Amino acid sequence: MQFQPILDEIAFQIQRELAQQGPRGQVARYIPALARVDAAQFGIALRTCDGQEAVAGDGQTPFSIQSISKVFTLTLAMRHMSEQALWARIGREPSGNPFNSLVQLEFEQGTPRNPFINAGAIAVADRIVALYGAGAQRELCGFMSHLAGEPIAYDEEVAASEAATGYRNHALANFMKSFGRIDHGVQEVLDLYFHQCALRMSCLQLARAAGYLCRDGAHPLQADAPVVSERQARRINALMLTCGTYDAAGEFAFRIGLPCKSGVGGGIVAVVPDRLTLAVWSPALDETGNSLLGMKALELFTTRTGLSVF
Ligand code: GLN
């Protein structure tokens, strides 16, 4: 299949809608540095298992990947920890609640429902601090650059903006700490969490970096360097399908039919196992914190190509 004309067509359609109607939805306002992003942008890019690439619209413009980073921190933790040590404190069930919700944590004794809601990602960040100590941020950035095949960096302004206003994340981390579910200092763990959310990448870089998820765990660019095992890659995809888009996971499965992970920067990464990884970006969000036009673009893509996990 030739993907470039398909992406061009989707970008044309979405950009025409943006020009005619303006962006619907809202950029993430609770993070001041994200509230300033121009909402009238749209990018899309993909990379196939055998290395074919296609990119359209603002597909090479870097943006704040936010919660998409949760896939990569989970991957890093899975690479280096025993299953037991990792999953002892983190569940694997969809939450059906907003990504930053506190309610279920109390019922479940400080154990987050899954690694892709904020509480779960903060618990994963604690595990990464356990692995790398003060070198955790450097290690994560190096891992992202290794996956993307080029240097990736943090946006320090976004990280500082979140640290200054991330009251809910502070609440989540303190609450888990009170149940003994976090071993390290709340500040240290949140510092890593805010930095992972502030990684700046384009759709094309994300499509490349997530390539191991459609390649049975093999490195996206180097065939001889597995990122995770085939079984682990399958498990990450399963978690993305059931938990990757929070309380919209059912709607994503229904309309798009692929494992996806979204972020409040407006990006979404989607996986077609054994075929390709796809990334879309448009900053305006719906009420569940998922990119409105990103979701529409993914729906157009799967409708047009017939690709689905079902
Ligand atoms: N940094 C954001 C937060 O913690 C990430 C949320 C998201 O992308 N869903 O609130």
TrEMBL record:
GO terms, biological process: glutamate biosynthetic process; L-glutamine catabolic process
Residues the record lists as binding substrate: 67, 118, 162, 169, 193, 246, 264
Pfam families per the UniProt record, alphabetical: Glutaminase (PF04960)
GO molecular function terms attached to this record: glutaminase activity
Keywords recorded for this protein, A-Z: Acetylation, Hydrolase
EC class (word): hydrolase
EC number(s) given by UniProt: 3.5.1.2
Keyword Cell inner membrane: no
Highest taxon of source: Bacteria
Swiss-Prot/TrEMBL catalytic activity: L-glutamine + H2O = L-glutamate + NH4(+)
Subunit field text: Homotetramer.
Entry similarity comment: Belongs to the glutaminase family.
Designated name of the protein: Glutaminase
Native source species: Xenophilus arseniciresistens
Gene expressing this chain: glsA
